[in-house]
Amino acid sequence: MIIGKVVGSVVSTRKCDNLVGNKFMIVEPIPSLKVDNRIVAIDKIGAGIGEYVLVAQGSAARVGCGIPDAPVDAAIVGILDEGQNLE
Fold this sequence. Notes:
The protein is mostly beta strands. The protein contains one helix and five strands; from the N terminus they run ββββαβ.
């Protein structure tokens, strides 16, 4: 699981049937994780741009978003209310 900041969103009008109705957000991992790539994560909990979130990846992402048969590799599973020294 990683901590990141939501920096944008992605719109996809055509996608796999079991992804219809879901929102996708661009998440930038916090610098201390030393991960250079941004992540596109499915968002079932309503995170907004500028919020810090917890992101599950791999098979945990499918479980975390409640769509076990969807092609999901990253899912926002929590919004941080408080965090110290994140950046």
